[in-house]
Amino acid sequence: MLDISNNVSLAAWEIELTAIRSMGNGGQRVNKVATAIHLRFDIKRSSLPDIFKKRLLSLKDTRITKEGVVIIKAQSFRTQEMNKEDALNRLKELITSVMVAPKKRKPTKPTKGSVQRRLTSKANKKTVKQTRQKPSVRSI
Question: Which UniProt keywords are given for this protein, alphabetically ordered (predicted)?
Answer without folding.
Answer: Hydrolase
